[in-house]
Predict the 3D structure of the following.
Amino acid sequence: MAVTLRLPLLSPPFYDQTAILRRQPHLHKLRQLSCSRRDAIILTSLVLPAISLAPPWSAAATDSPEKEKANVSSRNPFLNGIANTKSWSQYIGDGFSIRVPPLFDDIMEPEDYNGGLTYYGDKAKPKPFAARFASPDRSEIVSVVIKPSNLLKITFLEAADITDLGSLKEAAKIFVPGGASLYSARAIKVKAEEKLKTYYFYEFGVDKQHVALVAAINSGKAYIAGATAPEMNWENDGVTLRSSAISLSVV
């Protein structure tokens, strides 16, 4: 059974720097983290081959009216592992929004917000991340990546929903790196504007990192939110990171 949830309408896109989190003066020194292992896990999960899918495949169910799932029934242990994110800052980007964990810093550089064009109107090199946030010690990262869906699966038709990439199990070949230990996988259906939008959720471990990943498609673009932390941190911070990833909404 799949999750059916209601998604509240969002206001027009904007970026309010103070509403998200204050930028810190030492962030330029932290730019060297842009090619860290956590980032590589998110990026390479888009292209690496299939893994052996030993864990059972299932879907959560709830009647919760919000995408930020809280106080849900104990019949749904997966959703009980999600925090209420309504009080968190909300980042609204190009076609998506995501809730930012408390105390996380925005570690995108100002030039990363330019719209993918040079000053002369030519297309610039695509930026790897649409949004990036980090814990104060930079050991935990929340990122959003946007990719054309036809780069994930060759097709002549524009993908309109994540299901166009295949089933939850089939799409794991795209989003979960080879050799990873898959802990959980869910298909979540969200109701927005009287339509159902499907999100695929995967949680896995790879290279001593624990990852919660949520993917959705809208108008031929794939939106992938990933929250990563060292395995040793997940017991304490896993609910927060998982909740941030699952708060991803495409608009």
Notes: The radius of gyration is 17 Å. The longest strand covers residues 181-192. The chain has five helices and eleven strands. Helices lie at 17-20, 27-30, 37-44, 168-175, 231-246.
